[in-house]
Amino acid sequence: MGKIKYLSPEVITHIAAGEVIDRPAAVVKELIENALDAEASQITVTLEEGGVRKIIVTDNGFGMDQTDLELCFKAHTTSKLSTVTDLQSLSSLGFRGEALASIAAVSQLTIKSRPATEVIGTGLKIQYSHVQAMAPVGMASGTQVIVEDLFLNMPARRQFLKTSAAEIRAIIRLITHLALAYPATGFSVTHNGTPLLDFSNQHTFSDRVRVILGEDMATSLVPVQHSQENMNISGFISKPQQARTSSSYQYLVVNNRIVRQPGVSQIIKEAYGTLLPPRLQPVFVINIQLPSRHVDPNIHPRKEQVDIQGEATLKTVLRQLVKNVLHQQDLTYQYHSTLAHEAQLFNDAGADPALSGVLRDATDPWDVRRTQIDLHSDIAQVHKLYLIVQTNKGMLIIDQHAAHERILYEQFKATFEQMSHNDTPYLLPEPHLLTLPVADLPVLEEHRTIFTALGFDIEPFGNTTYKITAVPALFKSHDIGALVTGVLDDLRHKVGTINLEKAAHKTLAYLACRTAIKAGDTLSPLERHELIKKLNQTPGQYTCPHGRPVQVEVDLNTLHHMFKRIS
Ligand code: ADP
Ligand code: MG
Description:
The protein is of the alpha+beta class. It is built from 19 helices and 23 strands. The termini are far apart. The structure holds adenosine-5'-diphosphate and magnesium ion. Adenosine-5'-diphosphate binds next to helix 2, helix 3 and helix 5.
């Protein structure tokens, strides 16, 4: 006798529910997306106990009449598409018609709705997919969905939920992301009676970014904007100084959908190159608009990822865009004095928020003047490591090793990329013989063309020995054997500490590190001057190839605060 049976629709819904609705945040996402699809301009979310006890989402969208209400929570019922062709160019956030059905399967659900054209609304109570009651209700036009006791009928699932605090964090992160995708929609959120978020429906995109990322971060964001046929990219990226240790401040929106596209985020990070240490993540809010037929959200149960037709082109454009924007910016690290901040807090206390913006206006993060070094001023060297020089805004403290490392790295890169060295290599008075441990042989072989391109002449000389006959003139006073083996060591051990795509560039970065002026080297006034002058003309002068700051500016305001000239 056959053992295989068809599952009942009820069981099917129950199984499917688990894929879509795995935690309170998933409920909130589906309900808010429904409200957005209903063109709501104001969405209110009320939560109890991390959303597990209760989630209420109220909107002022176009609502549902009684007929639609009776259908909306059944599996595969939707007003948003009817044919397979519709699936190929979706403009609504929902399309599968399974969210309400899934929520209904795992909770006590109440839906009240009233279209603007009707005078009275309808309320529906559903318990684990079964209608318990239906009645007319007086209400404002729009829809209210109440989800209670999530997963009470699925003890195993309920057990796996995180703490209430963790669920709230996930919900807040979700709502802020949605709010960035819909800046003109008002959102307000309360948890256990405490207001958590309140975003006005009068916001522009930049207002919304400011409110969500906070003034301090928002003021140091840089706008990005690019339009070409079939593609529009807009948003903000952070300067390297504002980078974070986690990617939680990275917001990507594709065709108004909030998405996680690791490939796309990775490209943005890569575009920072040596401006960021590998362990740090840039902050960004990037909004991408593509023709709807090029974006398929139907590849992920919770619609968290989309399939982008032409993703490779998008990545190329995005990488170049971010690179260009960063290239045009003054990325000098600014020292933020806690003294100045305290004075700021004092000044701001009780002040009108609009006014505090004006007060802040006077301090550094808002200073849009580019930092300009005054090369006629004296340059001090302290602790044989830091150089101090006057700028138009205050003073700059420069790490001499990091500065020289960047200068050399850019110089090596230019030489390497043009494959022609202007300097004639320096012929060693007698060849240097280098005998390597066997383990180093493949490392040297892999990178030998890079050394050659820079002007090294390194040839195999039998067994594990190599013969070096020429080196770039720049290195003539270095201990060549130690330099080459040192770089091979770096390549073997430290590859991950440099945020560069190309192996060649890594070699150049290590070479720069090993040959740069060290901490502890005394520099004559002329050498200090030369170093800073060169740094000033070097691309990426703000960080060393490892992404650490090369120069930090302390502006006059901060100095005045330190000396209590102003408070
Ligand atoms: P989908 O959004 O994929 O269509 P849902 O199960 O989320 O599926 O919703 C089913 C249907 O219920 C929607 O297509 C829509 O017609 C209606 N609906 C749900 N929520 C709302 C709302 N807040 N306002 C108006 N209509 C809604
Ligand atoms: Mg939906």
